[in-house]
Structure formats: structure tokens, C-alpha cells
């Protein structure tokens, strides 16, 4: 039987493996990544990776889950906050990232975007990515739906709006990472306000 | 001295090299691409590649130029056409692609998106990509400026609007290619109309 202490130890181990995976992916890229590269980024023996994960795809699936939880989970908004405030907080979180102690937002996003492009070439990897990608999009769509229900947003197609905002955020991060457009997140935040959210807000 | 016949022959050769590069990139990816892989996709001897291009970066620079010309150049709109019509044509061209005899739009875009992500890791490659990327964005921005000058679009920040539309198109193509969202281009076209271009069009 797992005691709470066991579970805690196991959760710490998983986090150590996930952070080691980030560093290893950042160095080697997904294509060339071997389990032993992850082991080399850890203080523990790499046997623990094989104990916790059933191969590269299983690890990758948990890894994407881990990234997405970092972005979703850390948005702290009072459930009674106005939908507009929550929407702003979620957009900012995805564009500018939460604070990390080390290995920051853009290092993490570099890995995320590389995995995204790699899904072009690998059906199983694509399937895993889709599941996790859907959760990010939903977190935006649900705030839009909530605002419509509460009568503070216009009655737009919430799924279409959520997808559009998710796409714009993704593209802005990609431009900063690939083309070195360091002002892309700030510029995109302004463009979202000026050209997209104006379709959502009722005239004041 | 180059005669017109020489120039024509040279232009045919360059096109053959560019098309061979597409096929080779599609098979091997940019990272692993060798000049000899391109040679294997051609009927001519691969010495002609070395005769025309000064190494992998020079070839890549011309290759990006070649892709972008295919997308920019083939939009045929009467210069007196309403800006709204030209804007629609350019957006459709980038989203759905021009017609190709073989090796179609999505095969070409798969290579383009892979090169885009690869620019994360290579400063010189990024610089080359930026030059060409800027031209695509300008072709959208200029139509917006034109419409504002003619008084048929609202007086918005044309550069910001052009960038936003370019980003949205890029993200939609990426989703179709990476995540298999086959309806992404059509859905995105509808979202652009509903949520972005409504900021541009004067009330009728």
C-alpha cells in the first residue's frame, strides 16, 4: 500500500525526471533523445525512469501533461472574478509564462514548439500532442463561454474565438523563438486587445 | 555574354534544383540534408548545384526566396480591384495555396514549417528566414494600408493588423500539419472574417 510519504517521494521523483527531460530535450532535440540522455541530467540512477515510465512515448505523454499543467494550473483567478479578468490572466500566462526558479518560460516553450513541429512526422506523437493541446484551448474557450453565459461578452462562437486566440498566442511565441522577434508577445497582446477582443466586449 | 537562350536554360536548371531541394528536404529534413541528397532527386549531375549555389546556406536562401515567390507572385489581382478583394485573395493564397502540378501546397508548407522551427537553433538560418518572412507579411500589410488610404478600411495600425493576420495564417497551417486538424484553414478563414476583419471594414 502506498503511504502518503511514498506518494510524496514518488511525486518528487517524477518532477525530477520531468525537469531532467526538459534539459535533455533542450540539448539533444526530440529526434535524437535517448532515455540515457535524460539519466545524465539527473542525480538519481536512470533506472527510476524505466520504473516510472513505459518507454519514450509514455514519458513524452506525461511530459506534455506536465508542461500544460504548469501553464494551466498556475493561473490563480478568483472563481468570482469577472470573466474579462480571467481571460486576460490566461492569455498573459500563455504568452509571457509563469515564473520558474530555473529553466525559464522560453526554454520550456522552445522544447514545446519543437515537439509541436515534430508531430508532423509521427502519428502516435501527434495523437498524444492533440490531447494535451486540446486542454490549453479549452481553458480559453471556457472563459469565453462563461462570459457569454453571464451576459458580459457578446454571444459569439466561443469555440471559434478560443481557437483563434490559442492560434495567435502560439504564433507569437513561435516568432519570438524562431525569428528572434523579441517584441512578438507584447505586440501580439496589443493586437489581441485591439482587433480580437473588441468583438467580444459589449460596448460600455 | 549571356544570351536569352542561356538565361532560359539557367532558369530551368535553377527551377529543377529548387524542386529537387523540396523533395530532398521532405525526405531527409533540413538538419540531415546533404547536397548529394538533392543531387539524387535530379536528372542532371549534381555538379550543377555547386555551380549555381555557394553551399547549403546560399541554397537555402534562394530556396526560401523561391517558396515565397510561389505564394506572392501567383496572386493575380487587378491593381484597380477593391482592397477587400485583394486582401481576401492574399489570405486565401497563404492559407489554401496556389495550384501546383505535383508536390502540392501542403508538401511545400510542411518543409516551410520545418525550416521555420529549425531557425530556433541557427542564427544565420534565422537571418535568412527573417528576410523572406518579412516579404510575406508586407504583402498583407500593404493591402491594408492601401485600403486605409482609399478610405474603404478603418484607420487601424496596418502593420499590427498585417502581422496578426500573418500569424493566424501561420498557426492554422501549423495545426493542420502538426496536429492533423484538416479543417484548420477553413475554420481560420471564418474566424479571420468574423473576429479580425470586422475591425477593418467600415459599417455598410
TrEMBL record, chains A, B:
Keywords: DNA-binding, Repressor, Transcription, Transcription regulation. Gene3D superfamilies: Tetracycline Repressor, domain 2. Residues 11-71 form the HTH tetR-type domain. GO terms for molecular function: DNA binding. Residues 34-53 bind DNA. The keyword Repressor applies. Coiled coil: none annotated. SUPFAM superfamilies: Homeodomain-like, Tetracyclin repressor-like, C-terminal domain. PANTHER family: HTH-TYPE TRANSCRIPTIONAL REGULATOR BETI, HTH-TYPE TRANSCRIPTIONAL REGULATOR RUTR. This is TetR/AcrR family transcriptional regulator. It comes from Haloferax namakaokahaiae.
Amino acid at each position: 500500500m502506498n503511504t502518503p510519504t511514498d506518494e510524496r517521494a514518488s511525486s518528487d521523483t517524477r518532477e525530477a525526471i520531468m525537469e531532467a527531460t526538459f534539459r535533455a530535450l533542450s540539448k539533444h532535440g526530440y529526434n535524437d533523445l535517448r532515455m540515457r540522455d535524460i539519466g545524465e541530467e539527473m542525480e538519481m540512477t536512470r533506472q527510476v525512469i524505466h520504473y516510472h515510465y513505459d518507454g519514450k512515448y509514455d514519458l513524452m505523454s506525461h511530459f506534455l501533461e506536465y508542461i500544460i499543467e504548469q501553464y494551466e494550473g498556475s493561473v490563480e483567478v478568483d472563481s468570482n472574478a469577472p470573466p474579462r479578468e480571467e481571460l486576460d490572466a490566461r492569455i498573459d500566462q500563455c504568452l509571457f509564462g509563469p515564473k520558474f526558479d530555473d529553466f525559464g518560460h522560453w526554454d520550456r516553450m522552445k522544447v514545446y514548439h519543437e515537439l509541436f513541429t515534430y508531430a508532423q512526422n509521427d502519428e502516435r506523437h501527434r495523437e498524444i500532442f492533440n490531447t494535451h493541446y486540446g486542454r490549453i484551448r479549452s481553458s480559453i474557450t471556457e472563459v469565453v463561454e462563461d462570459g457569454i453565459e453571464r451576459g458580459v461578452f457578446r454571444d459569439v462562437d466561443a469555440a471559434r474565438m478560443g481557437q483563434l486566440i490559442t492560434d495567435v498566442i502560439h504564433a507569437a511565441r513561435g516568432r519570438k523563438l524562431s525569428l528572434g522577434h523579441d517584441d512578438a508577445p507584447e505586440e501580439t497582446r496589443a493586437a489581441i486587445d485591439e482587433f480580437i477582443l473588441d468583438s467580444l466586449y459589449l460596448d460600455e
